[in-house]
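Objective 1.3, modelling of assemblies. Example input:
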Amino acid sequence: MAEKKQTVMAASGDQMVAEAFRQANPDVLPVYPITPQTIIVEEFDKFVADGKVHTEFVPVESEHSAMAAAIGASAAGARTVTATASQGLAYMWEELYVAAGMRLPIVMANANRALSAPINIHGDHSDIMGCRDTGWIMLFAENAQEAYDDTLISFRVAEHPDVMLPVATTLDGFITSHALDRAELMDDETVAEFVGQYKPAHSLLDTEDPVSYGMFANLGNFYMETKLGQRKAMENSFKVLREAGAEWEKLSGRPFEFVKTYGMEDAERVIVVMGSSIGNARAVARELRANGEKVGVVGLRVFRPFPAYDLVAALKGAKAIAIMDRCETIGGQGGPLWSETVAAMATAGVSIPTRNYIYGLGGADVTLEILYQIYEDLKELPAAAEKGDVIGVTYVGARTSAKDSQSNLVANSQTAAHKG
Amino acid sequence: MAWDIEGNEKWTYEEIPLGAMTLEGGTGTKHLTGDWRVKRPVWDSEKCIHCLQCWMYCPDNSCKAKDEKMDGIDYEHCKGCGVCAQVCPVNALTMHVEKDIRAKGDEKELHEHAEKVLKEEEGK
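Predicted structure (tokens):
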């Protein structure tokens, strides 16, 4: 191997994903443009035009067709990538299950964006969280660097024989997808060796050894077993992700952790969060810790498979936990990160009061003031939990009515409403 | 290549091919679908001009052709969709209620054969 060389770039997250796609040199890229993903395929299209990749670039007429083409290409044995966001991802929804059920190692970048209505092009996790049960591995990048690293690691885990699952590598719309960031680009040779060649066990186009995909699994016959196979593959992906992450760390010097912790050696009040807001929480925690306050941050980089073991290990010393969801589950008890975290703690026999904060919807600014307020709010949480007064979610950063809030930033829990 | 699916009803998730793939091509011939039919296409070889429109349009490969000529219908797989009768330019294919034809006992031999094959399949 030639000597490793990393170039420091001033690039957006979308550009870094495009670079990662270029270096993985996919066989097929079917795509339909949608903000805030468009830069990824614009940049990639230039690589195609300049002959820097051998990719068949397929401009299709919709995201539904993009995923259909990706499924066909992947079943034919091609290394297949695509990218989307928001309504585009929603339009792909039924086929996301097909890609996962057929065990096709498609790698897709999603620039996380709000869903209509009202129409909104900015960053939140509504789109990707709507797909959390489709059987895709899901990674959440905090910044452009992680978007690049996650994309490269995705090929290793998706195409691993013990896994063979599609991977969605996600970055927050605009904050990460568009804003210029500092990121290091590994040299092409090192990446080529790291991602390797995809060698499919079967190909739909192999007439010598024909196979059929998407067959009817008869009543009481294959269906449950196939789903169990997907679950086992998802479980296997923990080990493969860890190994590929460790190998990438050796090459790049950057760790790949399922759960990133800050101040957790002694933190009592903790924020659990994903994506681009992890950095904001860390900045506030740093300030508070400088004043001797025992606060911490737990940021998730992997959401599927859900890293329950690592998460509970990080949280078990905490006294009060704020779990922040950047999407709504209207009518549900709380957001998906909250539900998963609480379930993980409960099954591990860990009982710590939590409050679910809904924040940053439709790209609403996640100010440091909001995060200070949450850490402040956590001081009261254990006493409130004792009284049973924390059912429901807490909105932060929305203009609220005087009747349900103490401040114009926080609309607190709805225990009274639950009593009807 | 023939794929051995003996005992497949006992396969665990590890034995089922990845993504419920079928490790063989053209397995549709093994799945008899003739008993789905409500209406049956009947071919009049006198009227037929052998344009093979029916052969081209049939979604189930059930209009048989031999030496570039129409050669009857595969009633073991024909689901009775009626596309062949619709596209036939000379009305050489017409749709008839399946149970009426069966009641008359026409083409008895063919039915006996199809039913025998279906019974064998059910026996497995």
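The longest helix of chain B spans residues 108-123.
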